Amino acid sequence: MTAPLLDARLVVDRGAFRLDLPLRVDAGEVVALLGPNGAGKTTALRALAGLQSLSAGHVVVDGVDLDRPGHGRWVPPERRRVGVVFQDYLLFPHLSARDNVAFGPRRQGLGRRAARERADGWLERVGLTGYGGRKPGQLSGGQAQRVALARALAVQPRVLLLDEPLAALDARTRLDTRAQLHRHLSAHDGAALLVTHDPLDAVALADRLVIVEDGRLVQEGDAAAVTARPRTDYVARLVGLNLCRGHADGHRVHLADGVSLASVDRVDGDAFVVFPPTAVAVHPHPPEGSAGNTWPATVVGVQRHGDHLRVQLTGALDVAADVTAATVARWRLEPGQRVWAAVEAGRTRAYPA
Amino acid sequence: MTPQRQPSTGRAAGRRVPAALLLPAALGLFLLVLPLLGLLLRTPWASLPQRLTAPGVLTALRLSVQCATMATLLCLALGVPLAWLLARVEFPGRRVVRALVTVPLVLPPVVGGLALLLVFGRRGLLGGWLDDTLGVTLPFTTTGVVLAEAFVAMPFLVIAVEGALRAADIRYEEAAATLGASRWTTFTHVTLPLVAPGVAAGAVLCWARALGEFGATITFAGNYPGRTQTMPLAVYLALETDLDAAIVLSLILLVVSVAILAGLRDRWLGSP
């Protein structure tokens, strides 16, 4: 097994907040760093770029120490081969699109003409031929994003970092730009790390997801593994599942307050059980026939969700149930109402915690 | 102003302004404008063309403009790096340094001139050494005028540029660093262009302050026509012999000042 292109353990102490995140990215791999606001995603990206020094740990790219406080090693950002696409792009407002892209090559010692030629080449690759003379203020959001990508790639970075690259775009532009970005990330032979809070961007663009919460790694894996087996409430919410933790013996998982859920999966010991909101039914009375998988609950809220209504329930388990408008109308579901929740056993999945 | 906003501003204007505010405001404006009006009223318009072309006037004007320009260039060369240091580098005693930079703003210029004399005078701290080793004499020379003006005007530039640097988004500099730019290249290629309007505004204020400098100049550089006698000094001298000449010289300074303010307003201050 070869060493990864990027190998890091990012430890940053900032007052009460501590980031401690191990991170490995192979050449040609795209990793998405996914997490809620304030989880430390941007801090991690800044530490990799050299805009924030580590308190402990290390950043190694291509076997070279870029930051290792334990040994007093530190390479400033301008001498790291790390390219960054910033969240609001930060195109230099006084330079044309071409000169923005040529800025990096110029600093690498290329002459003015050669740098501009290379810039034009990159602008062509991102589909902006003919836009080189425009100032950033004359570009649309999607165009500015592509110029920022071209500018970061023009220095031929070993590690490409993207901070919420699609967050500032409207829905329509976002779709096109995401497809384009996917193409460029696939073509990039270095490591790429994408910071985002949007699971759709992460799944569409990355080979692997790394999920951070409160400065720590909580889950890691490819999109299929993460979406099928969430391990925290945050991830479960991201992928739209109800997540409960309990103790399993065989096909039954025992949860809080004597509630237990049956599952087709066989697990023993501490376990998670997940089920989609559409698998939860809401009844005004204890449903007959189903011995388990049901418990009394209280309605907390009812909201429109797609083409049905999402009912938030509290009680022994806090879960969401997706029901039809007809159900809500028939039983006049409203906050504070006492109901019974039931989960279809065939639609729960259990796995070791 | 958009057309839609006019009705609301009209209504706002319709609200009564309290007399307790209106009266002192009008008096304040009166106090500021009346002396200038007096200057215009007493100007000998008939003899203005001859007086403007009198040899002493042009010499003083040329010297004033030259010295103010030299002083501004000196302030730019030293003041912009000083402003950058204050805005971008954390160092012990930064607040003390910032306070020291603003001292000439509140110091009576005569005191500044005296202080300069004590340092650069022939028997001053550095003046003797400069005279002996380099053969450079500063007091009572044109260079002395430039030095005195720079001393008084530099804070205007430093404060304006530091303010612009603090307001500028530091993340552009970080972006430049990730693209391989050293701190110096980042300064020249990114920071300076971004704060150019602030630097220009500071330079104009600095130039205007240098042009009007009197106290430090007369103390440190004396009042020699053609060598150290700038416009304000010429006004002061003319006051004792020829009032009309003093008025004409003052009028020129007034016109230059107003022209600068108008230029500033349109281009950089962007006041409504």
Explain the layout of strands and helices.
The complex is a heterodimer of chains A (353) and B (272).
Chain A: E1 6-14, E2 17-25, E3 30-34, H1 41-49, E4 56-61, E5 64-68, E6 73-74, E7 82-85, H2 97-107, H3 112-125, H4 141-153, E8 159-163, H5 171-187, E9 191-196, H6 199-205, E10 208-213, E11 216-221, H7 223-228, H8 233-239, E12 242-254, E13 260-275, E14 280-283, E15 294-305, E16 308-315, E17 319-323, H9 325-331, E18 338-343, E19 349-352
Parallel strand pairs in A: 3-9, 3-10, 7-8, 8-9
Antiparallel strand pairs in A: 1-2, 1-4, 4-5, 5-6, 10-11, 12-13, 13-19, 14-18, 15-16, 15-18, 16-17
Helix pairs in contact in A: 2-3, 2-4, 3-4, 4-5
Chain B: H1 6-14, H2 19-42, H3 48-52, H4 55-88, H5 94-106, H6 109-120, H7 127-134, H8 142-167, H9 171-178, H10 183-194, H11 196-211, H12 215-220, H13 231-241, H14 243-269
Helix pairs in contact in B: 2-14, 4-8, 4-11, 5-8, 8-11, 9-10, 11-14, 13-14
Describe the structure.
The complex is a heterodimer of chains A (353) and B (272). Chain A has 353 residues and is α+β, with helices and mostly antiparallel strands. Chain A folds into two domains: 6-231, Rossmann fold (3-Layer(aba) Sandwich); 240-352, OB fold (Dihydrolipoamide Acetyltransferase, E2P) (Beta Barrel), CATH 2.40.50. Chain A contains nine helices and 19 strands. Chain A has helices at 41-49, 97-107, 112-125, 141-153, 171-187, 199-205, 223-228, 233-239, 325-331, and strands spanning 6-14, 17-25, 30-34, 56-61, 64-68, 73-74, 82-85, 159-163, 191-196, 208-213, 216-221, 242-254, 260-275, 280-283, 294-305, 308-315, 319-323, 338-343, 349-352. In chain A, a hairpin with a 3-residue loop joins strand 16 and strand 17 (319-323). The model of chain A has no long low-confidence stretch (mean pLDDT 91). Chain B has 272 residues and is mostly helical. Chain B has one domain (55-269): MetI-like (MetI-like fold, Orthogonal Bundle). Chain B is 78% helix and 0% strand. Chain B contains 14 helices and no strands. Chain B has helices spanning 6-14, 19-42, 48-52, 55-88, 94-106, 109-120, 127-134, 142-167, 171-178, 183-194, 196-211, 215-220, 231-241, 243-269. In chain B, helix 13 packs antiparallel against helix 14. Chain B is globular. Chain B starts with 5 loop residues before the first helix and ends with a helix. Residues 1-10 of chain B have low confidence and may be disordered. The chains are: A alpha+beta (353), B mainly alpha (272).
